[in-house]
Input
Amino acid sequence: MIEVEIRARIENIDSVKESLSSIKAQYIKTIKQEDRIFGNPKFLDENTKIIEGGLSARIRTVADSSKVEFKEIARQGGGVEVSADLDDVNEGIELLNKLGFKEAFMISKTRDIYKYNNFEIALDKVDKLGSFIEVEMMVNSKDQVDKAKEDCLELLKKISSEAEITIEKYGDIMQNIINKDI
Output
């Protein structure tokens, strides 16, 4: 499966929730996620950001459940993502280290998840970064990516016309903050 998403910074999360209600998007749940982000030097640029087409790794923990995930970085959407459940976070860290990945930082967020037709919509409050909306859908093949991007963008405009679209991943934004502090 290929994840296609549009991400945008939003100022007023409550007005976006009202828009979601008006289109009858279904609220699913609220979760707290902690992502431990790992980088591999062969996929990093001079600013320690993952290069386009490179792989990032993360260990995502939600409640008492953890997964190790590898994600192809496609800032315009359409990257391949693979994940596996972890029984022990330390074993996941050890595996990533053996593969050359080193822990870079943690991203903590509270995510409200909604469903609307074939879309998943996430409203994120990300520690240190602010509030964002992600509109995403999964497709089966690369030839479906462009149409899926258009559909995600159309829905985003319907929900939040003032949203400021960004192609940067949360990891890119966090790395920018870290680079400024160095």
In short: The helical segments are 13-22, 89-98, 145-159, 170-181. The CA atoms of residues 154 and 161 lie 10 Å apart. The first strand starts at residue 2 and ends at 9.
